[in-house]
């Protein structure tokens, strides 16, 4: 399969599991767990069948965000070393985002720098850091280092805080288990983090920090006008919400193959801010994502930017 126009295709939110960090199957179906652990035959065959040239690999949620104690840093380092070996064994097909031990922010910043020197393209963080939103100032040393290294931090969903799940979703979670995950809970949690990152003043302190959000921005492009307008009402501290979102954030198409939603993102954020992703293997097949390119009401030049041009620039690939 070839994307039209013919150009390289880089998918930037494609997950795997490390044997030590994801020691159990977390209740996932055996076939999904097996696909997460595959970084060879099955993954490469499905990439080829869909016309995907490169996957940027990232550890599945919650990655290292629930680790604690003195072993967390050493464990995360081993995880990243094994991922580096996976990329080194297939450097034309794989790149990587690092896992970071957020329970020790200073060590996490050092691990980010170490992995970037190994060729990693940035890092991915998932959900909460041991129950704390990742905008908290204790985590800012990570973002300061990312700014200095000029690499992005990809904020990926994880399950909501237990109290949120209890209050918001308990009435429906049994019959509709995905409501706390991809159907709604993930989006609410990650969009909330995006808003908090901007309100926290992080980008005043680190104006060149680069952030990636998946799933076409977790609703924020659709909401940006209203959020920005409401925050400017008298009596509140002023924040340039739209300016920060459109200057410091990039979006991916992971798990969201909708032309109306894509056009909203293009109109609000600009074509240069959108990166292609599938969300493999949680989206069980790559092909719908690449077939979608043929239906995009965009020019060939703009499609090529989404397919790989924007990722090449942002990730220096």
Please name the defining characteristics of this protein.
317 residues; alpha/beta; TIM Barrel; five-stranded parallel sheet
Structure explained in plain terms:
Helix content is 44%, strand content 10%. The protein has helices at residues 30-37, 41-50, 71-89, 105-117, 140-149, 162-169, 185-199, 202-205, 220-231, 241-248, 259-269, 287-292, 300-315, and strands at 10-16, 54-59, 94-96, 123-126, 153-156, 211-213, 249-252, 274-275. By secondary structure, the protein is α/β, with parallel strands linked by helices. The chain is globular and about 60 Å long. The protein contains 13 helices and eight strands. The mean pLDDT is 95.
Helix run count? 13
Q: Could you list the spans in which at least 5 consecutive residues all have pLDDT below 50?
A: none
- How are the strands of the largest sheet arranged? 4-5-6-7-8
C-alpha termini separation: 22 Å
Given the C-alpha coordinates, what overall shape results? globular
Q: What is the name of the CATH topology?
A: TIM Barrel
- Total domain units: 1
Write the CATH architecture name.
Answer: Alpha-Beta Barrel
Would you list the SSEs in sequence order as H and E? EHHEHEHEHEHHHEHHEHEHH
Major sheet attributes: 5 strands, parallel
């Amino acid at each position: 399969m070839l994307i039209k126009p013919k150009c390289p295709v880089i998918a930037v939110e494609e997950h795997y599991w490390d044997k030590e960090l994801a020691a159990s199957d977390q209740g996932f179906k055996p076939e999904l767990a097996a696909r997460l652990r595959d970084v060879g035959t099955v993954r490469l065959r499905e990439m080829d069948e869909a016309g995907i040239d490169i996957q940027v690999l990232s550890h599945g949620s919650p990655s290292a965000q629930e680790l604690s104690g003195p072993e967390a840093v050493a464990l995360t380092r081993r995880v990243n070393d094994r991922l580096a070996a996976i990329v080194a064994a297939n450097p034309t097909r794989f790149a990587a985002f690092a896992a970071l031990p957020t329970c020790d922010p200073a060590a996490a910043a050092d691990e980010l720098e170490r992995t970037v020197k190994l060729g990693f393209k940035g890092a991915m963080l998932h959900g909460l850091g041991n129950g704390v939103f990742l905008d908290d100032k204790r985590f800012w040393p990570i973002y300061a280092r990312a700014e200095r290294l000029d690499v992005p931090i990809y904020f990926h969903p994880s399950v909501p805080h237990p109290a949120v799940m209890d209050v918001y979703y308990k009435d429906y979670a049994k019959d509709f288990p995905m409501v706390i995950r991809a159907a709604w809970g993930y989006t609410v949690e990650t969009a909330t983090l995006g808003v908090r990152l901007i309100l926290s003043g992080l980008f005043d302190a680190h104006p060149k920090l680069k952030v990636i959000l998946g799933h076409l921005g977790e609703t924020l492009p659709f909401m940006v006008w209203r959020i920005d307008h409401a925050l400017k009402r008298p009596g509140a501290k002023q924040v340039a919400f739209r300016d920060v979102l459109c200057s410091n954030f990039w979006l991916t198409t992971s798990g969201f193959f909708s032309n109306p939603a894509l056009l909203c993102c293009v109109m609000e954020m600009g074509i240069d801010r959108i990166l292609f992703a599938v969300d493999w293997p949680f989206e069980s097949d790559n092909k719908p994502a690449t077939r979608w390119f043929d239906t995009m009401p965009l020019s060939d030049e703009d499609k090529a930017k989404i397919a790989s041009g924007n990722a090449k620039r942002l990730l220096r690939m």
